[in-house]
Amino acid sequence: MVREIVRHPPPMMIMRYVWPLCALFAGPLLIWFYHRYGRKGAEDTPFAATVAKGALHCGAGCALADIICENLAHYVPGTLKYFGFGTLFSEELFATWTMDYIFALLTGIVFQYFAIVPMRNLPVSDGIKAAAKADFLSLTSWQVGMYGLMGLAHFILFPALFDARIDAGHPSFWAAMQIAMLAGFATAYFPNWLLIRVGLKEKM
After folding, report:
1. What pLDDT score was predicted for residue 43?
2. What's the pLDDT score for residue 54?
3. CB of 33 within 8 A of CB of 52?
């Protein structure tokens, strides 16, 4: 993926970070998609592929936040008390998801900022507002799909397979996370279609 980006970079600078992050969960399929629709000079991109790129732009922020937050929750569990564990939540998972969401939203807004501001030539304050409008619905819809599948894995699948609840210290957790990210892509697709159609989100 990285070699393909170096040889054939995408038109938007921020997308140089988006594609490798998404390759972590989409693998060879994403490499093919990038080769066909993502790199500079790609022609005849259908609107469906444009929407997919918009959703993946959101997914990259989610992926980065999940990697950081899930490992932080595993190796430094004391951080979860700042996200409601022991007060709002008796289940560590929900505090972890809260941390994930906050980090993902902030990361997503940063990614959106560097996509929108160069295209619209906005001042900083207007750029932040536009980025937040573009990312809130997209990221929230992604997290709904991802959390839904990870909830099934956490409460049903992992106890059935391992007779235990599994976290980021186990390879099976990350295998499930890859599938959950694809579920997030599915739930974020239509919101991105809508955001791009109404002009709140830029075509990637």
Report:
1. 67
2. 94
3. yes
Amino acid 180 reads A
Average pLDDT, the chain: 92
Distance CA 186, CA 182 (A): 6
Segment (H or E) for 77: none
Cα 192 to Cα 110, 137, 186: the distances in Å are 17, 8, 10
Instruction: Specify the higher pLDDT residue, 115 or 93.
Output: 93
Tokens for 87? 């007060």
Q: What is the pLDDT of residues 109-148, one digit of tens each?
A: 999 999 888 888 899 999 999 999 999 999 999 999 999 9
Q: Is residue 1 over pLDDT 80?
A: no
- Two tokens at 172? 């099976």
Categorise residue 23: left if φ over 0, alpha if ψ from -120 to 50, beta otherwise. alpha
Give residue for tokens 């932040």: 128
Helix 47-75 with 124-152: angle, nearest 10 deg: 70
| Single-letter amino acid, residue 77 | P
